[in-house]
Write a structure and sequence with these properties.
The protein has three domains: 214 residues, Rossmann fold; 84 residues, Translation factors (Elongation Factor Tu (Ef-tu), domain 3); 104 residues, Translation factors (Elongation Factor Tu (Ef-tu), domain 3, Beta Barrel). The protein contains seven helices and 23 strands. The strands form four sheets. Strands 7, 8, 9, 11, 12, 13, 15 and 16 form an eight-stranded antiparallel beta sheet that branches. The chain has a six-stranded mixed beta sheet with strand order 2-3-1-4-5-6, with helices on both faces. Strands 17-21-19-18-22-23 form a six-stranded antiparallel beta barrel. Strand 19 and strand 20 form a beta hairpin. The longest helix is centred in the middle third of the chain and has 15 residues. The two termini are 41 Å apart.
C-alpha cells in the first residue's frame, strides 16, 4: 500500500527525566510490530545482561551502544515506523533542563508533541517548560499522556486532577489542539491497545489518535513560497532552451499559468510548467520538491523566491525574532554571524537582546539579558541584504532561520521571526 506524503506525521516526545518517554516509544514500536527481529534480539540480550526480566522497551530508542550501557538517552533519537494508515517520524528528546536546545531541534518540524506527565508527580516545572516550547514553536497538536497510571492504581481522580492542572498552564499558551490520555507505557494501557483496566476512559488509545490526527490543514495553503535551490540547465542540445528552477514549495499551492513575482528583484512572469520526476503536474503543494519553469527569460538565482503576484512576503533587513541559543559560547550583542533562511544566506548582526525567558517561571526578564546555551529570548537582527520573511506564527517554514558562527561554522541559534 502506497502512503502519500500528506500521511507522514512527525511528532516529538517531551517530559521529565524518567517519565518514560523511551519506554512509551518502545511500546509503540513493539505493540505495532515495527521492531525487526535482530533489533528485538539485541535489546533482549542487553536487557538480560542488565538483569532485567523480559525486554526493556526503552532500549529500542537508545540509539548508541554507550547510551544503552549507561541506561540514559542523551541526544535527539529519531525513529521511523509505519502502520497501514500512516508513516511516522519520532523525535525522542532528553528531559534534562540542559537539553532544552535538543527539544527545540526535535520539535521544530513536528506536527504534534507528546508531553508525558508522571501520574505520581503531576505537572512540574519541566512540564511547563516543554509545553511553553511547544507553544513557542507553534506545534499544532499537543497530546498530554499521563503515564505510570499503574503506579497510582489507575485512579481516575488522580488523572482528572492532573488534567485540571495542565489546563491551567495551557490557558497561558498558544496551542490549538490539546488531548489527554491516561496510559501505562510499561504495561501497554492505552498506548496501542485500549486499556482493559481504565474502563472509565472512553477515548482512543495513543496510536489511534496519532493515526487519525488531521494534519493537512496544518500546512499554510494560502501563501505560495518557493525558494529556489538549484538552476536546472540540461546539457543535452535537445533541451537547450530549458531552464528550470528546482526547490521545495515551503507553503501554498502553485499551478501553471499563475502570475508570479520573483523576489528580491520584483520582476514578474507566469509559471509555464511544474515538473516532478519528468512528469508534468497540474499543481504543486507544500511540501513537494519540484522544478518550475516560467514564461519569461528572467535572471533567477539560488536564494531567490518565487511567489504569487498578489501575495508577497515582507522584505526586511531589520526584524525581531525569538531564538533558542544552541552554543556553549554566549550570544554577542554586536556579534557578526551568518544567517541561513530558506535557501538564502547572508551576514547578520545581533543588534540587541530585548528580553530573555526565565525558564523556571516562564516570565520575561529584561534584566538578565545574557543568552547562554539553552536560553530562549527575543533579539533584534540586522542583515546585510533583505530577506523574504513571514511571521513564524503564519508560516513556520519562511519564518524560521539559523545563525552560524563564521569562525567555527557551528550552528549557534535557531530563530523564529516575530
Amino acid at each position: 500500500m502506497e502512503i502519500s506524503t500528506n500521511q507522514l506525521l512527525r511528532f516529538t516526545t517531551a517530559g521529565n527525566v524518567d517519565d518514560g518517554k523511551s519506554t512509551l516509544i518502545g511500546r509503540l514500536l513493539y505493540d505495532s510490530k515495527s521492531i525487526f527481529e535482530d533489533q528485538l534480539q539485541a535489546v533482549a540480550t542487553t536487557s538480560k545482561r542488565r538483569g532485567i526480566d523480559g525486554v526493556d522497551l526503552a532500549l529500542f530508542t537508545d540509539g548508541l551502544k554507550d547510551e544503552r550501557e549507561q541506561g540514559i538517552t542523551i541526544d535527539v533519537a529519531y525513529r521511523y515506523f509505519t502502520t497501514p494508515k500512516r508513516k511516522f517520524i519520532i523525535a525522542d528528546t532528553p528531559g534534562h533542563i540542559q537539553y532544552t536546545r535538543n527539544m527545540v531541534t526535535g520539535a521544530s518540524t513536528a506536527n504534534a508533541a507528546i508531553v508525558l506527565i508522571d501520574a505520581r508527580k503531576g505537572v512540574t516545572e519541566q512540564t511547563r517548560r516543554h509545553s511553553f516550547i511547544a507553544s513557542l514553536l507553534h506545534i499544532p497538536h499537543l497530546i498530554v499522556c499521563v503515564n505510570k497510571m499503574d503506579l497510582v492504581e489507575y485512579n481516575q481522580e488522580v488523572y482528572a486532577r492532573i488534567v485540571e492542572e495542565f489546563e491551567a498552564v495551557a490557558s497561558k499558551l498558544v496551542i490549538k489542539d490539546i488531548r489527554f490520555i491516561p496510559i501505562s507505557a510499561l504495561n501497554g494501557d492505552n498506548v496501542v491497545n485500549t486499556s482493559k483496566i481504565m474502563t472509565w476512559y472512553t477515548g482512543a488509545p495513543l496510536l489511534d489518535e496519532l493515526e487519525n490526527l488531521h494534519i493537512s490543514s496544518d500546512y499554510n495553503k494560502i501563501d505560495a513560497r518557493f525558494p529556489v535551490q538549484t538552476i536546472i540547465r540540461p546539457q543535452s542540445t535537445t533541451y537547450r532552451d530549458f531552464r528550470g528552477y528546482a526547490g521545495r514549495l515551503m507553503s501554498g499551492i502553485l499551478r501553471p499559468g499563475d502570475e508570479i513575482t520573483i523576489l528580491p528583484s520584483g520582476l514578474q512572469s507566469k509559471i509555464k510548467s511544474i515538473q516532478l520526476h519528468n512528469q508534468e503536474l497540474s499543481e504543486a503543494f507544500a511540501p513537494m520538491s519540484v522544478t518550475v519553469t516560467i514564461e519569461d527569460d528572467i535572471d533567477v538565482s539560488r536564494g531567490d523566491m518565487i511567489v504569487r503576484r498578489n501575495n508577497l512576503p515582507e522584505q526586511a533587513q531589520n526584524f525581531d525574532a525569538m531564538i533558542c541559543w544552541l552554543s556553549s559560547q554566549p550570544a554577542q550583542v554586536g556579534g557578526k554571524y551568518s544567517i541561513m533562511h530558506t535557501s538564502n544566506s547572508t551576514k547578520a548582526i545581533v543588534q540587541s537582546v530585548v528580553y530573555t525567558i526565565d525558564m523556571e517561571t516562564l516570565e520575561r526578564s529584561t534584566e538578565k539579558l545574557n543568552l547562554t546555551m539553552n536560553a530562549i529570548g527575543r533579539i533584534r537582527i540586522k542583515t546585510a541584504k533583505p530577506l523574504m520573511i513571514d511571521a513564524y506564527r503564519d508560516n513556520r517554514h519562511t519564518g524560521n532561520f539559523i545563525l552560524i558562527d563564521d569562525a567555527t561554522n557551528e550552528t549557534v541559534a535557531a530563530g523564529m521571526i516575530v
